[in-house]
């Protein structure tokens, strides 16, 4: 069993850290809002610290799952950050969805201190975190990946080293690009079905085994038809991810016309008050325009 | 066993008519290019006629699978069309992907002559036609559907009555709208992966079980990465279908921003000489711009 720290007990980190504890690891936690760290310790045992540096001291691995690039830099490089406490030879595994640039920057900074760093964003959402069934896309060194793999397997159903530092983040971006165009296409299809007076549910059932089949069609069409969006992956988070995607594409020269357009559509959804709605709420934007 | 005619022995109609014959039905065929009708008779037996009217005479059911609205009007209402030969009480099943408007128009015209009419476009492509595994979306009267169902089951894996005349065509449109946005999102994702220096194959394998999963991702990502498009559902046919979709949306008020954009992208692919390429060739357009 390894000595671990887990930093960032949000909707993802809280259950992920719980899986590590349930597997028998010694887990020390840190969370910006202290009451949540205390709740975690009350539920799972272990120890809560008041700074990332303190939590990282004497650990074999330090997991991080925070909000964005700035949060990540703060908990790693801040005055009381992980790098102030972690010992040489230890490993940082970052589960935040962040830019490939910050992943490469922190990889380099860690390497100079003899610390391993993996960028390891996840997909599978809150349910995946709770069931320990996440997909984890990893960038970094192979030896560090091999060392870290058994621990990540506590909450992974799919775990893959994609290449050097930043490659995990780039793979997560590929995932979000697929989803953007796919969900907008599905939203337009359901909106068209309603406009045409078709039974949308019957239409989805008849096309669901062919070339239009997708996870989103199977798992989201009913709630999209019903206009229910108070669940799932929030529009605010999707916009954060698409912002990272579009920045990266500006650098690497990729053309993403539909992804950029869908990002703007999500801005419309935010303007409708849908910041916390699931990404499938793109249909609400189409339906609204018609009803105004 | 029923007496049947099959009109239009293209890549879809030829094998579909074959399945009817293999099931023991008496099948009479008509095809605009006579040599193809002769080839069919050489392979399956039966009888070839020189006009749709002649083929339709004395039949219980007349299947049609031609190119577009104009072809369909010609074989049904032309001087030597089906309606000149068909007897009252018989049924026309139209497998053409056409407009909902022409379906309603022909339904009405047939009704006045005591002939049943179903709009019954299919999906599943050439492979689905050859394996007898098509999805068929039907519009028309329930009693006519029930009468026709056993015959269509000779080449269907999924067969559903969607509502009154035109509903089959509208459902096919919903299918094509889903595919347009989905394939463009996938093309952007793969193009981004290449631009970012990622292993696209590895990236697809790691995201293929989650929220980005789709039939298109599973069945098209390898050929898209390899730039192979000489197969599948041709861009020219997709543009025909999207033209029908956008016309219908103009009438019913549905907003289809990404579908309209993807239709324009397919116009770019046509301009690149990709008229016969598979719909997944949207990625070729993104890659071309970079290489120019």
TrEMBL record, chains A, B:
<dbReference type="GO" id="GO:0051287">
    <property type="term" value="F:NAD binding"/>
</dbReference>
<dbReference type="Pfam" id="PF14833">
    <property type="entry name" value="NAD_binding_11"/>
</dbReference>
<keyword id="KW-0560">Oxidoreductase</keyword>
<dbReference type="InterPro" id="IPR036291">
    <property type="entry name" value="NAD(P)-bd_dom_sf"/>
</dbReference>
<feature type="domain" description="6-phosphogluconate dehydrogenase NADP-binding">
    <location>
        <begin position="4"/>
        <end position="162"/>
    </location>
</feature>
<dbReference type="InterPro" id="IPR015815">
    <property type="entry name" value="HIBADH-related"/>
</dbReference>
<dbReference type="Pfam" id="PF03446">
    <property type="entry name" value="NAD_binding_2"/>
</dbReference>
<dbReference type="InterPro" id="IPR008927">
    <property type="entry name" value="6-PGluconate_DH-like_C_sf"/>
</dbReference>
<dbReference type="InterPro" id="IPR013328">
    <property type="entry name" value="6PGD_dom2"/>
</dbReference>
<protein>
    <submittedName>
        <fullName>Oxidoreductase</fullName>
    </submittedName>
</protein>
<keyword id="KW-0520">NAD</keyword>
<dbReference type="InterPro" id="IPR006115">
    <property type="entry name" value="6PGDH_NADP-bd"/>
</dbReference>
<dbReference type="InterPro" id="IPR029154">
    <property type="entry name" value="HIBADH-like_NADP-bd"/>
</dbReference>
<comment type="similarity">
    <text>Belongs to the HIBADH-related family.</text>
</comment>
<dbReference type="GO" id="GO:0016491">
    <property type="term" value="F:oxidoreductase activity"/>
</dbReference>
<dbReference type="GO" id="GO:0016054">
    <property type="term" value="P:organic acid catabolic process"/>
</dbReference>
<feature type="active site">
    <location>
        <position position="172"/>
    </location>
</feature>
<feature type="domain" description="3-hydroxyisobutyrate dehydrogenase-like NAD-binding">
    <location>
        <begin position="166"/>
        <end position="284"/>
    </location>
</feature>
<dbReference type="GO" id="GO:0050661">
    <property type="term" value="F:NADP binding"/>
</dbReference>
<dbReference type="InterPro" id="IPR002204">
    <property type="entry name" value="3-OH-isobutyrate_DH-rel_CS"/>
</dbReference>
């Amino acid at each position: 069993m390894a000595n671990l720290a887990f930093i960032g007990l949000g909707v993802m980190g809280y259950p992920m850290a719980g899986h590590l504890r349930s597997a028998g690891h010694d887990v020390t936690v840190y969370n910006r809002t202290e009451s949540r760290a205390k709740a975690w310790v009350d539920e799972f045992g272990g120890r809560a610290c008041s700074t990332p540096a303190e939590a990282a001291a004497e650990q074999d691995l330090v997991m991080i799952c925070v909000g964005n690039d700035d949060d990540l830099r703060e908990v790693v490089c801040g005055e009381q950050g992980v790098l102030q406490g972690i010992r040489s030879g230890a490993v940082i595994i970052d589960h935040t969805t962040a830019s490939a640039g910050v992943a490469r920057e922190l990889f380099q900074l860690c390497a100079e201190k003899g610390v391993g760093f993996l960028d390891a964003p996840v997909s599978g959402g809150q349910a995946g975190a709770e069931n320990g069934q996440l997909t984890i896309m990893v960038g970094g060194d192979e030896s560090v990946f091999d060392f870290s793999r058994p621990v990540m397997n506590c909450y992974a159903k799919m775990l893959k080293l994609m290449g050097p530092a930043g490659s995990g983040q780039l793979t997560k971006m590929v995932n979000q690009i697929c989803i953007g165009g796919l969900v907008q296409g599905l939203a337009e299809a359901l909106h068209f079905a309603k406009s045409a007076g078709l039974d949308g549910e019957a239409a989805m059932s008849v096309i669901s085994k062919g070339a239009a089949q997708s996870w989103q069609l199977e798992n989201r069409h009913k709630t999209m038809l019903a206009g229910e969006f108070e669940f799932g992956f929030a529009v605010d988070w999707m916009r954060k991810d698409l912002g990272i995607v579009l920045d990266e594409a500006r650098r690497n020269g990729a053309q993403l016309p539909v992804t950029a357009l869908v990002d703007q559509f999500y801005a419309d959804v935010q303007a409708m008050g849908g910041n916390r709605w699931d990404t499938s709420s793109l249909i609400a934007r189409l339906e609204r325009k018609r009803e105004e």
